[in-house]
Design brief:
The protein is α/β, with parallel strands linked by helices. The protein has helices spanning 15-26, 60-72, 137-140, 156-165, 185-192, 288-307; strands at 5-11, 31-35, 48-49, 58-59, 77-80, 83-88, 94-98, 104-111, 115-117, 133-134, 148-152, 171-175, 197-200, 204-210, 215-222, 227-232, 235-238, 242-244, 274-276. The structure holds NADP nicotinamide-adenine-dinucleotide phosphate (NAP). Residues 118, 120, 152-158, 160, 177-178, 182, 239-242, 285-287 line the site of NADP nicotinamide-adenine-dinucleotide phosphate. NADP nicotinamide-adenine-dinucleotide phosphate is lined by residues 118, 120, 152-158, 160, 177-178, 182, 239-242, 285-287.
């Protein structure tokens, strides 16, 4: 076997990728886990995790480092590489192209590359990125001590991150384009009970403005009556969802309207031998628990497939 030939290749070392590496390594498959950055994925952007069984409260980075150590203890290799494309070889093996270096080859690939925060796409958003526009409260919140901040979004992330930001900000205005929330009621309730959070509903952010150095205000529109106004803030944190990293496969795999891979019960995509788990996969909710569960299934199915191809039904 060539040194870059593997039985199983895993793309992305968040909770799903780390779990897949644990199970594939434990099954004694020659496994490579490809990750361009620090392992941990979205855990690294999460302050405290309170819904991972066995840990009443643990920081995201702490859970990431425990998962990484555990995952690699069974023999999977982690290689620092940015994957740029995945193609099929004529014999069905998968060729995994990376930015600097020779491609990797594997009998089965597990896609666990997560995604990126969705952007608002409004004027000022890119200009002020890193100068008052942020997508990560844990990373940037501490830079805004005593400031009035805005959070945009109405999902779980917006509620949780608004609450997190109140430890630094004098006040957090949560701006949501509707009056109903996608977030779990318990998180909405917690944010509503936080005296530092105020809600601005049925409101759309149209522009982010500043003095050239730093965000100073948001231009807002209220669609109900068509009125517009400004809100002075020191920064704006945007939590309006997530875009899956599902553009790596160079052959078509079925996906939903937002680009999340659709899999069967073995986590196999419509491409035989290509599995997906974690935030890149279409599912009801994107939790650490679902990521690790689905990655377990993916790793077991990938193991069976490389050992005994007929044991895993071809995708429908
Ligand atoms: P999400 O649930 O998709 O919510 C995105 C929010 O942003 C929605 O309220 C949406 O508004 C709004 N939005 C989308 N595009 C917008 C735009 N262009 N302009 C203004 N608002 C926009 O995303 P999320 O909160 O990032 O959560 C993603 C997943 O991670 C979910 O499955 C969630 O359960 C999970 N998560 C869980 C936790 C937890 O359990 N503790 C924490 C964080 C995330 P509309 O409602 O009007 O569409």
């Amino acid at each position: 076997m060539h040194s870059r030939d593997y039985e199983i290749a895993i793309v992305g070392a968040g909770p799903a990728g780390l779990t897949a590496a644990l199970y594939a390594g434990r099954a004694l498959k020659k496994t490579v886990l490809l990750e361009a950055g620090i392992p941990g994925g979205e855990l690294l952007n999460t302050e405290t995790i309170e819904d991972y069984p066995g840990f009443a409260s643990i920081t995201g980075p702490d859970l990431a480092s425990k998962m990484t150590e555990h995952a690699l203890s069974f023999g999977a290799e982690m290689v620092a590489a940015r994957v740029t494309g995945i193609a099929l070889e004529p014999d069905g093996r998968k060729r995994i192209e990376v930015e600097d270096g020779e491609p990797f080859f594997a009998g089965a690939v597990i896609l666990t590359a997560g995604g990126q925060p969705r952007k608002l796409g409004i004027p000022g958003e890119l200009d002020f990125a890193g100068r008052g526009v942020s997508y990560c409260a844990v990373c940037d919140g501490a830079f805004f001590k005593g400031e009035h901040l805005a959070v945009v979004g109405g999902g779980d992330a917006a509620m949780e991150e608004a609450a997190f930001l109140t430890r630094y900000a004098s006040k957090v205005t949560l701006i949501h384009r509707r009056s109903e929330f996608r977030a779990q009621p318990v998180l909405v309730e917690r944010a509503r009970n936080n005296p530092k959070i105020e809600f601005l509903l049925d409101t759309v952010v149209e522009e982010i403005t500043g003095d050239g150095q730093q965000v100073r205000s948001l231009r807002l529109r209220h669609p109900a009556d068509g009125s517009a106004d400004e809100l002075e803030v020191g920064g704006v944190f945007i939590f309006i969802g997530f875009l899956p990293n599902s553009g790596l496969l160079q052959v078509h795999a079925d996906h939903d309207s937002q680009g999340y891979y659709i899999t069967d019960e073995n986590m196999q995509t419509s491409v035989p031998g290509v599995f997906a788990a974690g935030d890149v996969r279409a599912q009801l909710t994107r939790q650490v628990t679902t990521a690790v569960g689905d990655a377990t299934t993916a790793a077991m199915a990938a193991t069976k497939l490389v050992e005994e191809p007929l044991a895993v039904p071809a995708p429908a």
